[in-house]
Amino acid sequence: MIKNINLKDLKTIPNILSLFRIALIIPFVIFFLNENYIAAAVAVIISGLTDAFDGYIARKFNQITDLGKMLDPLADKLTLIAIMICIVILCPIVLPVVAILIIKDVVMVIGASVLLKSDIKPPAARWYGKIGTVMFYISVALIVFLKAAFNYENPILSLVLLGATAAMMIFALIEYFLIFIKLKNNPNNSEKE
User: Fold this and answer.
1) For residues 133 and 51, is the Cβ–Cβ distance under 8 A?
2) Beta-carbon neighbour count of residue 156 at 10 Å?
């Protein structure tokens, strides 16, 4: 897969949106740590919207690239990690749930690396992975909004929201693991996955 990456692919709109999402992490963290929660929430919402649009644009305008298949999940993972760290700073009780999410993402990166090392293309994101990401964005936006707008913090609500998100992400991890096993056992099916 690495051999197929072309730097001109950086100029496609979906890949520019993925790079924008990565760059957006810095202002999000700055806003959040300076307790400008409204601006931080706006950054998360913009990141979530661009995440939805990059895949749509890639499919609609035939701009799916190997680089995009790497950039999109990388942007997702980096954004999620930054958000999780900030949420733990705001509400330390959610640390166990965040640990589950981090473990899931690390396992997925390792799986993708193993596939790449075997010269097997990792699969594109699936609906269950995207739903887990959207659930995380919604949960975080709600937690941050309640803190910013009403100075309301409810650790139980945070645990419920992030717990449901963790359950969806664990489901996604299991589904991706099954795809990983299939691809390792039969690498020729990588395009059909």
Assistant:
1) yes
2) 8
Place of tokens 């990565």: 22
pLDDT tens for each residue of 104-156: 778 888 888 888 788 887 777 788 888 887 887 788 778 877 877 788 888 88
Q: Residue 60 — left, alpha, or beta (φ > 0 → left; ψ -120 to 50 → alpha)? A: alpha
The three-point CA angle 141-159-94 to 5° equals 85
| Tokens at 28, concatenated | 């999000």
State pLDDT tens for residues 37-64: 889 889 988 998 998 888 788 888 887 8
Which among 138, 152, 172, 137 is positioned nearest to 24, based on CA atoms?
Answer: 137
Burial of 102 (0-12, 13-18, 19+ CB in 10 A): middle
In whole angstroms, what separates CA 57 from the centre of its chain? 18
| Backbone angle region of 177, left / alpha / beta, with phi > 0 → left and psi within -120 to 50 → alpha | alpha
Number of other residues whose CB lies within 10 A of the CB of residue 176: 21
pTM for the full predicted model: 0.65
Domains of the chain plus CATH, in order, are 2-189 (1.20.120.1760)
